[in-house]
Structure formats: structure tokens, C-alpha cells
Write a structure and sequence with these properties.
By secondary structure, the chain is an alpha/beta fold. It has eleven helices and 23 strands. Strands 1, 3, 4, 6, 7, 8, 9, 10, 11, 12 and 13 form an eleven-stranded mixed beta sheet that branches. The chain has a four-stranded antiparallel beta sheet with strand order 14-15-20-19, with no helix packed on it.
């Protein structure tokens, strides 16, 4: 009996010691990157009401921490200018954890569907050359393990790794090329968190609160067809892959998605804006959100791709967003363009100019629809970001005009002093104008830096 009691006591004490150990979420590992010059939250779990210390080597400061009665703890630390490597040590009564090779720099979340997930191993242009030369020890890569959940989670699984030919080839190619350009211009560590998942619609990345506030979005989601690569259940990737990261400080987000929302294209702007806003609310941070306009492709629906591209253009009405146009690097037979270099570069140029304040004077957007004026039976179309506007080819194509009945007709167009003059013999009283509206339409209008014009459809004209 005494022996039995002794064994029970030993087991109890052993269990208590295990419970008392400090535990960190999966995003905190060796080789990680923390956002520079800001307040960063360190957090995790331990025994309720346990006292321990956190030491940060960049300022040689030790902080006393006490776990709450919910077994959770968190502490805010100030990060310095970009640099490193540093150490962070968590020291308690039962264990000690030291995170080594910690860098301070820019941390960006890289999300979306397969074109963001697409790696060099999935096949990209100049694949062997890009892999061989991917030695960037100050670019750090974190791939989030794929998980779905019906409810918001608190932790993710993954490991930070320095960018090498071995680690780069399994990572998002767009994100890698984005970081490579940033590091070249900023000369600081760049941390990338990749949680992209192929074939996903935006609904799975959007928290349930959005659908509760906007039930019409839940209704529109019913048009999205199930597929064999991922569930289409609302919010489950937000819960599993985004919610656990919202305490981790980021500098911004890049996003490449939209192909899977061609089934409910008309609702994409509303959904997308609400998704971005919800993420910012959860992070409590109006961080920059830069996204890729989907490329022309032969979808089942003749117009769905064009509608999504226009919905993405309209989402630029949300503050602190930017869009990289890609219609010139597409192939309508393959939904995955191989040229991921220019996609990453264009996203990086937008970030460098709009967020980091470098590349001033350089144009980073293709021509964007600005306004239209009806002049008799023709329409004058004005663009922003259109210095040196020109057309590739002999004739300006892809413009259409609608009549008073809302019927659309192909139109002839000409350039005059940076303005496009559009007319159609069948339309005497134009009511709207659109450009590159079909799913497979590849823009032929470019500005002086060689960036293509965006698909658009005007509001009804007077």
C-alpha cells in the first residue's frame, strides 16, 4: 500500500513538473525574424501563476513574467533597428529555452492559393538557376503546416529556416522573389511566413464574424464548387492558419488568390475588402496589404476572370492596398504562369515605394481606369499611372461600349494625348465602357515602364 502511494505521489509530481514547463508557440523558433522598431508580443503557456524571466540580448534586459490562472502568459518587448543575430532566453523553475540566431527586420505574411504556394519545385522559369543562386542567409522562411479548424486556434506548426538552395525550392516562389528585391533595396533581414493553400476561395480565409455581419456573402459562397485539394467550408483556414498568427507582429501581407472565386465573381470586392479589414482588426494593425491581380486564363465562364480582375481593381478603394497586374506574363492555357520573378518583383516595388518610401519617382502600377466622359457617340477614357501610354500592336482592341439597353458591342479605339477615344457604330448613346473583360483577354495597353493596363468596367455614364 505504501509503495502504491509512493508511486502515485511520484507520478503526480512528474506530471506537475511537465505542466510547469514554459511552452512557446510554433512560430517562435531558432532562426526566426521579429519585426523591427516596434512593440512585439512574446507569449505562450506555463503552469498557472508560475513566475519566470525573459531575457533579450539586443538590449540586455531581463523581464519578470507571471503566468495567469489560465496557464497563459505574454510580455511586450521593444525591438531595435534591423540587425542580429540575437538570443531570447526564457528561464523558469522547470526548464529553460534559448532561441538562437534571432534576426530583427521585416516580417511579411504570404497568403492565397496555388499561385502563391507555387514553389521552384513546382516548376518556374529559370528554375535551376534560381535554386542554385538562392543563398540569402538573412532571408528567413517559415512554412505553416496545413491545418483546418472549425474554431480559431492559438498555435501553428512549422520551423524557421535560412534561405538556401535547399529551403528555397520548397517555398513560395513569389514570396521569395518579393523578399529578394526587398533585401537588395533595404539591406536588412526579411522574414516570410507562408500559409498559402492551393485551390482555396477567399471565404475559407475569412473569419466567421464577416459572414455573420454580411449574410449575402455566405449566400454567394454557395456557388463555389467543392474540389479535391481543399475544403470550401467558410472560415476553416482562417481559424487554422491565420488566427494563430494574429499575435505575431508582421510588417505587411502579400496575397495571390482569386482564381477559385470566379464562380461567385460579382461578390469578390465586398468579400475581399471585408476579409482584409477583418485581418487588420484581429492584428490591431492597419498593415499594408498588396495583392496580385489574377492573370487571364481559359475559365469555363467566358467573363468570370474579367469580373474578378475588375473586382480586385475596385478593392484598391481600401486604404493601404496595392495591386500588381500580370496580364502580360500569363498563358491562357495554364492557370499557373511560370514567370514568378516578375510577380514578386512588382509586389516588392509597390511595397518599396508605398510603404518603405524608396523608389520615389518610379512608376510601380500599370494604367488604372480613372474616369470616362461621353462626347456625342464616343467615350473619352482617362487613366492614372499612364505616362507614355501606348498600345502593343497596330490596333487598340478589347474595348467595348454598351447602349441604353445594356447591350455590349466591340468598339474601335484610338490614343490621343494620353486619352483613349472609344466608339462603336452600333452604339449612338453610350452608357458604359469596359476593357479586357473576357477571361482570356490579354491587355495590350501599357505605360512607359512596360506595365499593363488593368481590366475595368465603368459605372453607368450620363
Amino acid at each position: 500500500m505504501n509503495v502504491r502511494r509512493s508511486l502515485i505521489i511520484i507520478c503526480f509530481l512528474a506530471t506537475a513538473l511537465v505542466k510547469a514547463e514554459i511552452t512557446l508557440p510554433g512560430i517562435f523558433t531558432d532562426a526566426m525574424v521579429l519585426q523591427r522598431q516596434t512593440d512585439v508580443l512574446l507569449y505562450g503557456w506555463a503552469e498557472p501563476n508560475e513566475e519566470f524571466t525573459v531575457f533579450t540580448s539586443w538590449n540586455n534586459v531581463t523581464i519578470n513574467v507571471k503566468t495567469g490562472n489560465d496557464a497563459k502568459w505574454e510580455v511586450t518587448v521593444k525591438t531595435p533597428k534591423a540587425g542580429g543575430p540575437y538570443k531570447i532566453t526564457f528561464k523558469g523553475g522547470a526548464n529553460e529555452i534559448t532561441l538562437k540566431d534571432v534576426l530583427i527586420g521585416e516580417v511579411w505574411l504570404c497568403s492565397g492559393q496555388s499561385n502563391m504556394e507555387w514553389s521552384a519545385n513546382s516548376k518556374i522559369a529559370n528554375r535551376d538557376f534560381e535554386i542554385e543562386n538562392a543563398n540569402y542567409p538573412n532571408i528567413r522562411l517559415f512554412s505553416v503546416t496545413k491545418r483546418t479548424s472549425k474554431y480559431p486556434q492559438e498555435d501553428v506548426s512549422g520551423t524557421w529556416r535560412a534561405c538556401t538552395p535547399e529551403s528555397m525550392q520548397d517555398f513560395s516562389a513569389v514570396a521569395y522573389f518579393f523578399a529578394r528585391k526587398l533585401q537588395k533595396e533595404l539591406n536588412m533581414p526579411i522574414g516570410l511566413i507562408d500559409n498559402a493553400w492551393g485551390a482555396t476561395s477567399a471565404e475559407v480565409w475569412t473569419p466567421a464574424s464577416v459572414f455573420e455581419a454580411h449574410p449575402q456573402l455566405a449566400e454567394a459562397q454557395k456557388k463555389v464548387k467543392p474540389n479535391k485539394w481543399v475544403t470550401t467550408e467558410k472560415s476553416v483556414l482562417y481559424n487554422g492558419l491565420v488566427a494563430p498568427l494574429t499575435k505575431f507582429k508582421i510588417g505587411g501581407t502579400i496575397w495571390y488568390q482569386g482564381e477559385s472565386n470566379t464562380a461567385n465573381a460579382e461578390s469578390y470586392q465586398n468579400l475581399f475588402i471585408n476579409m482584409i479589414t477583418s485581418w487588420r482588426n484581429e492584428w490591431n494593425n492597419d498593415f499594408p496589404f498588396y495583392f496580385v491581380q489574377i492573370a487571364p486564363y481559359k475559365y469555363d465562364d467566358e467573363f468570370a476572370g474579367g469580373i474578378v480582375r475588375d473586382q480586385q481593381r475596385r478593392a484598391l478603394s481600401l486604404n493601404n492596398t496595392g495591386m500588381a497586374m500580370t496580364s502580360d506574363i500569363c498563358t491562357i492555357e495554364d492557370i499557373h504562369p511560370l514567370n514568378k520573378q516578375d510577380v514578386g518583383l512588382r509586389l516588392a516595388n509597390i511595397a518599396l515605394k508605398n510603404h518603405f518610401g524608396v523608389l520615389q519617382g518610379q512608376e510601380v502600377y500599370g494604367p488604372l481606369y480613372k474616369s470616362s466622359v461621353v462626347n456625342g457617340n464616343q467615350v473619352e477614357v482617362h487613366f492614372s499611372h499612364a505616362d507614355g501610354l501606348y498600345n502593343k500592336g497596330n490596333k487598340i482592341a478589347l474595348f467595348e461600349l454598351s447602349n441604353e439597353k445594356g447591350e455590349w458591342f466591340p468598339a474601335k479605339a484610338k490614343l490621343k494625348n494620353g486619352t483613349v477615344i472609344v466608339r462603336a457604330k452600333e452604339v449612338q448613346k453610350p452608357t458604359a465602357v469596359r476593357y479586357a473583360w473576357r477571361s482570356t483577354d490579354i491587355a495590350t495597353l501599357f505605360n512607359s515602364v512596360g506595365l499593363p493596363a488593368s481590366t475595368f468596367k465603368s459605372e453607368r455614364l450620363n
